[in-house]
Amino acid sequence: MTSVPATLTVTPLEEKVSVVEEKTQDSQYALKFAGAAISNMASSAFCNPTDIVKVRQQLRTQTPGARGNAFWSVGVDMARTEGVLSLGGGISASMLRELVYSGIRMGTYEYFKDTLHDASNGALTREGLTLKITAASIAATIGSALANPADLVKVRMQAYYPNGSPYRNMRHAFASIWQDGAHKAVAAGASPMSGGLQALYRGVEATTIRGIVLSATQICSYDQIKQSLKKRGVMQEGVPLHFVASTFAGFFCSVTSNPVDVVKVRLMNDKTQQYKGAFDCVRQVMVNEGLFGFYKGFGMCWARLGTHTILTFLIYERIRYLFGIEAM
């Protein structure tokens, strides 16, 4: 009986190297997501007191600049009437929001940069702002939309209630908001499922726009400033460079995102349907409060977002170093 010789298939070395590199790159993207989520959660936990004061300021509709709306007045009043622990309100929802929102918007930024660069065959250069802004916008759009329910619950839990908060915890807040939307939908002859989802996705337009504006200025300015300072030989990779770049990034994103943040917070806390949508909210703020109405809470926004940005990038770069990933 004649034996048939076995056929030995040899995989070219280049293909093996390509597969290994692809797996390594995929694992790095996963670690970047984890690092982005951890760093943003840590920063948000530290900045929660300033965040809740900012939300309280943005929900007030009194004359812009009135003394009672100053961030120190709001903070002191909260501590005196609601207790110091009130400054930690909504922190559980904030952590969930950062896990989804920031994990995606910051953790997938470089994935979209690499993908778009390869898809354009290098036409979108890594040094150009077009690639950076496009990548940041795509990542922020996905992260903002998916995290909207957690963002809404955070705002509701941080709002002021004269008779005490109606929410016992984050889980109860989710359930209450869902049930309220479902009941209204049934009364209007619609599906309770659609009503619950609409309630949790209230203000998603403003949330997404804010996410894009914030990420395009925060992440891209940090990336661009780092790149420029290193290229000119002004600073080398390290903590001092990360601190300088993140300080500028924190200021820029505070200026650009505050107006959208005001609209987002108003819409999310609008239980009486005072606003028909984002554009109607913009119109009412402009008519009733003037242009400076969009910058209510800016001092606390800068204090919070500036500190948050610095801490986030310092922690994120350190986590990347510990994970064996090159600096951003």
From TrEMBL:
Signal peptide: none annotated. InterPro entries: MCP_dom_sf, MCP_transmembrane, Mito_Metabolite_Transporter. Solcar repeats lie at residues 27-115, 127-228, 237-322. It comes from the Eukaryota. It is found in: Membrane. It is a multi-pass membrane protein. Keywords: Membrane, Repeat, Transmembrane, Transmembrane helix, Transport. GO terms for cellular component: membrane. Pfam families: Mito_carr. Belongs to the mitochondrial carrier (TC 2.A.29) family. This is Mitochondrial carrier. It comes from Polyporus arcularius HHB13444. The lineage of its organism: Eukaryota, Fungi, Dikarya, Basidiomycota, Agaricomycotina.
